[in-house]
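FORM 12-B: Structure-to-Sequence Request
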């Protein structure tokens, strides 16, 4: 895997990463489990909800920066829980203030509390404002290739289409839309939401996605740390399979050992 780290880095906003698995911080039982799962996943980018996480604002509560020190991890503030462009922009500005000018953010603007599908109209509006304000925006969106193209044109540094609703564990529901996004994007495409188990992560990577972000699939597992390790291997295997190039699908058999030229 060291060779892959050197020759196949993930490049986001001008910075290289050897890990293509991004993880979240919600739903773990405590900060210790969060730290151990992040370590087992091999994650270098870890996202957190600005509105729900203590970064030192409350001295009496556990501090995320102690569990995931910024000199070791790239912290990715996200706008989870925001339903308007204005709220999302304010949340990113708060994160920048709390993290001493940190510009890399994950934008998500939700459409409703039941499905947690993105409101793409509000997402587009927020993305325009944030990019103009100097933020490096990784953006959660639908699997609509046209919206993905618009977000890239605005200047987002990564497109993060859902594979299925957030936390559903349903896996990759529309391979063809993801393929369309991947094949036309000039910025990284990372599956965000819907992964349930290791095979889902591998499929996303085999499709050519540049990475996978997940939280519930790890934190909600019976053994989150073990699942984090499994996801790490799945993402690596999926990426290697994509680079290796799969064989064509055929309706009929193709013998592994040729039958021509037999001696008897």
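FORM 12-B RESPONSE
SEQUENCE OUT:
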């Amino acid at each position: 895997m060291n060779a892959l780290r050197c020759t196949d880095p993930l490049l986001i906003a001008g910075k290289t990463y050897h890990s293509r698995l991004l993880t979240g911080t919600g739903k773990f039982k405590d900060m210790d489990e969060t730290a151990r799962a992040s370590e087992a996943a091999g994650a270098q980018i870890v996202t957190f909800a600005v509105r729900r996480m203590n970064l030192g604002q409350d001295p009496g509560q556990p501090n995320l920066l102690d569990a995931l020190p910024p000199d070791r991890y790239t912290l990715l503030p996200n706008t989870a829980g925001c339903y308007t462009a204005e709220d999302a922009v304010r949340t990113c500005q708060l994160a920048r203030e709390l993290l001493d000018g940190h510009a890399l953010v994950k934008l998500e603007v939700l459409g409703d509390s039941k499905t947690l599908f993105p409101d793409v109209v509000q997402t587009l509006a927020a993305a325009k404002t944030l990019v103009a304000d100097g933020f490096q925006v990784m953006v959660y969106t639908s699997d609509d290739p046209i919206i993905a193209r618009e977000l890239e044109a605005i200047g987002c540094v990564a497109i993060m289409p859902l594979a299925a609703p957030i936390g559903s564990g349903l896996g990759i529901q529309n391979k063809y839309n993801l393929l369309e996004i991947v094949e036309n994007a000039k910025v990284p495409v990372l599956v965000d939401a819907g992964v349930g188990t290791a095979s889902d992560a591998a499929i996303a990577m085999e499709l050519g996605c540049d990475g996978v972000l997940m939280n519930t699939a790890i934190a909600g597992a019976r053994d989150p740390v073990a699942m984090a390790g499994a996801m790490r291997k799945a993402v690596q295997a999926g990426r290697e399979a994509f680079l290796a190039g799969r064989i064509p699908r055929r309706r009929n058999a193709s013998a592994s050992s040729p039958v021509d030229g037999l001696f008897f």
